[in-house]
Amino acid sequence: MRMYDIIEKKRDGFELSIEEIEYFITEYCNDRIPDYQASALLMAIFLRGMNERETADLTNVMAHSGDMIDLSDIPGIKVDKHSTGGVGDKTTLVLAPIVAACGVPVAKMSGRGLGHTGGTIDKLEAIPGFNTSISREDFIKNVKEIGISIAGQTGNLAPADKKLYALRDVTATVNNISLIASSIMSKKLASGADRIILDVKTGSGAFMKNLEDSVKLAKEMVKIGENTGRRTAAIVTDMDIPLGFAVGNSLEIIEAIETLQNRGPKDLMEVSFELAARMLELCELGTFDKCMNMVLKAVESGKAISKFAEMVERQGGNTDIINDYSLFPQAEYKYDYVSQKAGYIEAMKTDTIGVASLELGAGRETKESSIDYAAGILFKKKTGDRVEKGEVIATLYTNKEEKIQSACSLLDRAICFSEEKPQLKPLILAYIDNKSST
């Protein structure tokens, strides 16, 4: 088998066999195919596309290119969740304790963030003492004993995806539905869960900017899950507005704690509770309505916040943070960003808001960058709200005083006003499962 022939075949619009896909992934991971040939094939795939079978095969082969986590020691159906990412997206911190409190084991391996704010792991590390680098044995033991563990990815998960993504990033071949879907799903398959729920974001603060592309991506990933033996479903949610009021690591943990105590922002509660109920439904605990009632009871009874506390304690964190937010890292500088005009907030360019939080220190520009856990933005007003001149829209938190004005300039560009109250879109725009993915 020759790489030249595989490139030529896809260039001319033909589908690749499983053997050809396996050859490409195996040989490239073993450095026996040069980057220029791998780039040529990626561009051919980008331009010619892949069919459903090819995409599922590519995903499966990438998933098996490294470690496959075995969760079979954990009793029951294991469910995993993935979000395509957004500004203020802390849903994992809310839904994981809820689902565990409802009796479904949550074994969640999450990543770090590169961009606006930290990933789930970075946010958890804002809790003093919290250890995300536990061994796989302790990870599984925690799930078996208390029903939940969230830890950083260990071992060699889907190394083919890591290597290919780095190449796609510099060859303008990122934005292809099959390549995006296989990248995301290869890591989910390698993580070992039986069921997968996907939160596909759409809008200015999301990777996919329009609803049509977001639905296509969701359907593609659901098909992959089903074609590789994992029941999979997806919801498409709006990311034209930051989720919740908090953007930044400690700020987002605090907001998650408030939500688990049934006093969080309405939008964060809606999306998190929907995802939690869909996870329970995927695990065959009943109809969606029944599962939603279970979610609400877990929160209202205090079981969800108690499960969060159990996880924090088990992984070495200080549980006093649940009642004393002053124990979180504190920013030296706080600055109120006030409105220069009166009117309604018509729109928020959420990606620009993300850059503003990055400027304050809440995210990473490169993998080597360090995160300031105290940095971020806490909004007082969002899209649809009336604002008077001089009224506080948001409070900025940072340890870099010199960055405050540049962050404010970004917010000036991000927040748009109108004289009329805008009509808000629904938060949850679509639900896709194996019955609706064709």
Strand order of the largest sheet: 1-4-5-13
Q: Can you tell me the overall shape?
A: globular
Which blocks of ≥5 consecutive residues have pLDDT under 50? none
- The domain count comes to 3
Q: For the terminal residues, how far apart are their CA atoms?
A: 34 Å
Roughly what percent helix?
Answer: 40-55%
| Fourth-level CATH superfamily of the largest domain | Nucleoside phosphorylase/phosphoribosyltransferase catalytic domain
Structural class: alpha/beta
Folded structure, characterized:
By secondary structure, this protein is an alpha/beta fold. The strands form four sheets. Strands 1-4-5-13 form a four-stranded mixed sheet, with helices on both faces. The chain has a four-stranded antiparallel sheet with strand order 6-9-11-7, sandwiched between helices. The chain is globular. The longest helix has 17 residues, at 211-227. The model has no long low-confidence stretch (mean pLDDT 92). The chain has 16 helices and 13 strands. Helix 15 runs antiparallel to helix 16 (404-414). The chain has helices at 3-11, 18-29, 35-48, 52-63, 91-101, 120-124, 136-146, 159-170, 177-190, 211-227, 249-260, 266-282, 288-300, 303-314, 350-360, 404-414; strands at 79-83, 106-110, 148-152, 195-202, 231-238, 246-247, 333-338, 343-348, 376-379, 386-387, 392-398, 415-418, 428-432. Belongs to the thymidine/pyrimidine-nucleoside phosphorylase family. This is Pyrimidine-nucleoside phosphorylase. Homodimer. Its EC number is 2.4.2.2.
